[in-house]
Automatic annotation (TrEMBL):
Listed name of the protein: Sugar ABC transporter substrate-binding protein
Keywords assigned by UniProt, alphabetized: Signal
Signal peptide residue numbers: 1-24
Keyword Phosphoprotein attached: no
Entries under PROSITE patterns matching the protein: PROKAR_LIPOPROTEIN
Domain of life according to the entry: Bacteria
Keyword Signal among UniProt keywords: yes
InterPro entries listed in its UniProt record: Bact_solute-bd_prot1 (IPR050490)
């Protein structure tokens, strides 16, 4: 594969703060900044109602700047990443793309995203450090502007906790004791379930524990999925499943919905977007849930993981990178734009100033019993731990679903499942031609 060596070198350069230099030649450079006249941009996104948000730009700042943006709705996840890379190989990628944070290394390693650090200078302060870090890949380059985030929290049935005399756990040790206590008092109920059908949940829990799944030095990657922090998380949850004090069924199924709606499952580790899911899965329990910070590994910690979230990136194929970056900044920092994104797309903004204003001045209707829902959420979001993504997150996530899905179902060794995840990820990277240190 003739592309392999270049991709490996570019990826490594990104990891050691040389990404800006390595990718500069791929963009349109100063030529795009010297252009004058009307500019038309295309934006690939899956966010609902984005066309209405972009209308605000086209009729306001965009009209003044003579920059028009056209939205092209796309599928999300791996489907969109594949489509972007296919278009990029044909040099026909759009000007802007919505990209999940974990997809950025894959897109950067394929030279698909431009470094817009000069164009977004001064924007960093509008976002939590752990969030901004995901768009830089730990370098001096900036490959996207954060759009929405998914800080993780602990959700619980407030009424049932009171009924069974349970205290809201502030540490994972207390969480385990709460699960045991509930099982003794109500054998037919579970505190929660370990689910292997959404890899982002486990990734966020590992992130909170301090895991660094990918890192790079020189021309080699190091894969740390099987690191001490992640092993601690895997063994903790595997122990609870084996002990039988939590359920082992996957989320998002009719059975899971019923468990939430009937009170068979009385807590859920989730993210800030959980109210929407609960409203659909457990409509009869509206107003009975409460949200608290994620339990910590030690009492003196205050950190959360992230489950989900995306950014707005400018592609190297764009002939108008400066104009595209200007729109990306407006979309994710402007007060009116963020209010429209919340209203039309249901997103929780990455911008810290927007997390307590406009659409977030009042709690979600499902949590009307917790007036400080978004105040508490904003505080938690600031404690988001840095994430460490690599060029084949999709492979790691697929391996997690297979290995941990089987381990949860069989109540078998989670440590072995984690090793399988590590081995699968390393094997794939070596197959693609990436240098991997052992």
């Amino acid at each position: 594969m003739p592309h392999t060596k270049r991709r490996r070198l570019v990826t490594s350069a990104v990891a050691v703060s040389l990404g800006a230099t390595a990718l500069a030649a791929c963009g349109s450079g100063d030529d795009s900044k010297a252009e004058s006249g009307p500019v038309s941009l295309t934006y690939w996104t899956w966010t609902p109602g984005m066309d209405k948000v972009v209308d605000l730009w086209n009729k306001g700042p965009g009209k003044k700047e003579r920059i028009t943006v056209t939205v092209k709705k796309q599928a999300s996840g791996d489907t969109l990443v594949t489509k972007i890379l296919t278009a990029h190989k044909a040099k026909k990628a759009p000007d802007l793309v919505q990209a999940e944070y974990q997809a950025l290394p894959t897109l950067v390693s394929n030279d698909a995203l431009a470094d817009v650090s000069e164009e977004v200078e001064g924007v960093k302060e509008k976002f939590a450090e752990g969030v901004w870090q995901q768009t830089t890949l730990g370098t001096d380059a900036v490959y996207a502007v954060p759009q929405d985030i998914g800080p993780m929290m602990f959700y619980y049935r407030e009424d049932l906790f009171k009924e069974y005399g349970l205290k809201v756990p502030t540490t994972w040790e207390q969480f385990a004791e709460t699960a045991r206590e509930l099982k003794k008092k109500a054998p037919g109920k579970d505190l929660t379930t370990f689910s292997a059908n959404d890899s982002g949940l486990f990734a966020g829990l590992a992130q909170q524990a301090g895991a660094k799944w990918w890192s790079a030095s020189g021309d080699k990657w190091k894969v740390g999925i099987d690191d001490a922090a992640t092993r601690k998380v895997a063994e903790f949850w595997g122990g609870l499943v084996k002990e039988g004090v939590i359920d082992n069924q996957p989320m998002y199924t009719p059975s899971w919905n019923k468990a939430l709606n009937t009170g068979k499952q009385i807590a859920w580790i989730s993210a800030v977007w959980a109210p929407g899911t609960l409203n659909t899965a457990a409509p009869d329990t509206k107003g009975k849930w409460a949200m608290a910070p994620l339990p910590q590994w030690s009492a003196d910690q205050d950190v959360t993981g992230s489950w989900g979230g995306s950014s707005t990136a400018v592609t190297t194929d764009s002939a108008h990178q400066e104009a595209a970056a200007k729109f990306a900044v407006w979309l994710n920092t402007d007060h009116d734009a963020l209010n429209a994104l919340a209203k039309e797309g249901g997103i929780y903004p990455a911008s810290t100033s927007a997390q307590l204003s406009g659409a977030f001045s009042n709690p979600p209707a499902y949590f009307s019993n917790q007036p400080d829902f978004y105040t508490k959420a904003a505080g938690i979001a600031k404690t988001t731990a840095p994430a460490s993504w690599g060029p084949n997150v999709n492979v790691a996530y697929t391996s997690f679903k297979d290995a941990f899905g089987a381990a949860a179902k069989n109540k078998s060794d989670f440590a072995a499942a984690l090793k399988k995840m590590q081995d699968d990820t390393v094997a794939d990277m070596e197959k693609q031609g990436f240098g991997v240190s052992r």
